[in-house]
Design goal:
Layout: E1 2-3, H1 6-26, E2 32-38, H2 42-58, E3 61-67, H3 73-84, E4 89-94, H4 104-108, H5 122-129, H6 138-149, E5 158-162, H7 169-178, E6 182-186, H8 193-199, E7 202-205, E8 223-226, E9 230-232, E10 235-237, H9 242-245, E11 251-252, H10 260-271
Parallel strand pairs: 1-11, 2-3, 2-4, 5-6, 5-7, 7-8, 8-11
Antiparallel strand pairs: 9-10
Bound molecules: NADP nicotinamide-adenine-dinucleotide phosphate.
NADP nicotinamide-adenine-dinucleotide phosphate binds at residues 139, 162-165, 167-169, 186-190, 193, 206-209, 227-230, 239, 259-260, 263.
C-alpha cells in the first residue's frame, strides 16, 4: 500500500512556483494576491492569514483588504472593481461567509474572470464544464495534482466521488471526466452508495463526515483520495477511516498531510496563470 504524500507534492509545486516568481522579479513584477475579508469570522480570518503567509513565502504579495460587517454591497462591489482594474493584482479572493445583507453570488461574480483564482465565478465554472478551464478551484485541482505526481492515470477507470458541492465534488467530476474516467457522483440521496463505491477503481471522498468511508466499501487495490477535514476528539480526521481502509486500498492520502497540504499551493499556482485575456 502506498501513502500519497501531500507535503511532497506541495514541495514539488512550490519549487516550480518560486522559479516562476523569480523570473517575474527580474522584470520588476511582484504579483499581488488581494484577500478581501468582511467582518471577523474566525475561520475566514485564519484562512486569510495562512494564504497571506503562503503567498509571501513564494515571493508574492498577499494584501489584506478588510471591511467592517456593515459595509454595503455596493461599496464592496466598487472595491472589487478597483482591484479588477489594478494591473498589479493578479488574483482576488473574497472570503466567505459574507454578512446576510450582501449577496455572495453578486460579489463573487463581480470578480473579473481573469483574476478569479478561486475558480468560483460563473464564467470559470462554465469554462470548466465546457472543457476549457481557466481557473480551477484549488481543492479539485489538488486532487488532480496528487494523481499526476504519483502517475496514476484515470483513463478508462471507474471513479466514485462522494459529495457534489460547487467547490469540490462538481468541479472534480468534470476534471475526472476530462481525464477520461467514468464518473459516478454520490450524494445524500444516493441509493446503494456502498455498492457504487465498492465498484470504483478510484474513490474520492468529499462528504464532510468523519471516517464515513470504511474498509468494507473499498475494492482491494483501489486508490482512495480523502478531501475531508473533520474534527473528532480534538483531532483532525478525514472522511475516510484511514486505519481500516489503508489495509485494503492500493494507495491512500492521509489526513492531515494529504490533499489539504496541496490546496494552498494550487491557489498560488492559479495566480501565476494570470492572463490578460480569456484566451
Ligand atoms: P459540503 O458542501 O457540505 O458537501 C458535502 C457533500 O456530501 C454534499 O454533496 C452532500 O450531499 C454529501 N453528503 C452528505 N452526507 C452524505 C451521506 N450520508 N451520503 C452521501 N453523501 C453525503 O462539503 P464540501 O465543502 O464539499 O467539503 C467536503 C469535505 O471536504 C469537508 O470535510 C470539508 O471540510 C473538506 N474540504 C477540504 C478542503 C481541502 O482543502 N482539503 C477544501 C474544501 C473542503 P447533498 O448535496 O445531497 O447534501
Amino acid at each position: 500500500m502506498q501513502i500519497l504524500n501531500g507535503k511532497e507534492v506541495a514541495a514539488f509545486h512550490r519549487e516550480k512556483l518560486q522559479q516562476q516568481v523569480a523570473l517575474l522579479r527580474d522584470k520588476n513584477i511582484i504579483p499581488e494576491l488581494a484577500l478581501v475579508l468582511v467582518g471577523e469570522d474566525p475561520a475566514a480570518v485564519m484562512y486569510a492569514a495562512s494564504l497571506q503567509k503562503a503567498a509571501q513565502q513564494i515571493g508574492i504579495t498577499g494584501r489584506l483588504y478588510q471591511f467592517p460587517d456593515m459595509v454595503t454591497e455596493t461599496m464592496l462591489c466598487t472595491a472589487i472593481q478597483g482591484l479588477n482594474n489594478n494591473p498589479i493584482v493578479y488574483g482576488i479572493i473574497v472570503f466567505m461567509p459574507l454578512p446576510e445583507h450582501i449577496s455572495a453570488h453578486r460579489i463573487t461574480n463581480t470578480i473579473k474572470p481573469e483574476k478569479d483564482v478561486d475558480g468560483l465565478t460563473e464564467t470559470s465554472m462554465a469554462r470548466l464544464f465546457m472543457g476549457k478551464p481557466l481557473f480551477v478551484p484549488c481543492t479539485p485541482k489538488a486532487v488532480m495534482a496528487m494523481l499526476a505526481y504519483y502517475q496514476i492515470p484515470l483513463e478508462g477507470k471507474e471513479v466514485a466521488i462522494i459529495g457534489r458541492s460547487n467547490v469540490v465534488g462538481k468541479p472534480l467530476s468534470q476534471l475526472c471526466l476530462q481525464a477520461h474516467a467514468t464518473v459516478t457522483i454520490c450524494h445524500s440521496h444516493t441509493r446503494n452508495l456502498e455498492k457504487i463505491v465498492r465498484r470504483a477503481d478510484v474513490v474520492i471522498a468529499a462528504v464532510g463526515k468523519a471516517e464515513f468511508i470504511t474498509a468494507d466499501m473499498i475494492k482491494p487495490g483501489s486508490v482512495v483520495l480523502d478531501v475531508g477535514i473533520n474534527r473528532k476528539h480534538n483531532q483532525v480526521v478525514g472522511d475516510v477511516d484511514f486505519a481500516s481502509v489503508s489495509q485494503v486500498a492500493g494507495a491512500i492520502t492521509p489526513v492531515p498531510g494529504g490533499i489539504g497540504a496541496v490546496t494552498t499551493i494550487m491557489m498560488l499556482e492559479n495566480i501565476l496563470l494570470f492572463k490578460g485575456d480569456l484566451g
